[in-house]
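Let's practice the habit of predicting before peeking. Look at the sequence and jot down your guess about where helices and strands might fall. Then scroll down.
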Amino acid sequence: MITDINQLDFNKKYTYADYLTWQFQERVELLKGRIFKMAAPSRQHQEISLMLERHIDRFMLDNNSRCKLYHAPFDVRLPLPTHRIKGDKVSTVVQPDICVICDLSKLDNRGCNGAPDVVIEILSPGNGRRERKEKYDLYESAGVQEYWVVQPNESFVIRYNLDEKGQYIGSRLYTEDDVMESKVLEGFQIDINQIFDK
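Done guessing? Here is the structure:
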């Protein structure tokens, strides 16, 4: 059992089985077996997350949606597509800021096993370019239907949706005074000003 993050070798690759034995306070994600530390979210990050959660939750309740909404920390295990898995080891565990899961068979007591339908990531200064690129690639290959990237410092949102080939197509940048809609949560719209409290 690992009780201190400093006991880990950051050059080594780990699996979900390893991850389950870690008993330290710091939050981490596994991206293809590599450890990424997660910084504590800022006040602005938390406010944006809460605003999005409220709007999505209200929409889902008003529309009697069978989908479920979760926020970090909530483990999402992303097995690689079958043709790329060696054995049954899962080496990717992420904690999206917000996710929506409509296939309830993916849910278990440990979180979600498989791709959520919608993932929302709110960028923080600590999110490196490499980490952002890896998550984009992981969410795309895992089959996350809709992926939102929220950039608080520049007050914009970009939404990616999978096309029929399983590749992301990006929307335009949604900025202040724009209204963005979800292609997965049919009928859901949000005023970008509300996200950034403008």
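How did you do? Confidence is low (pLDDT under 50) at residues 83-87.
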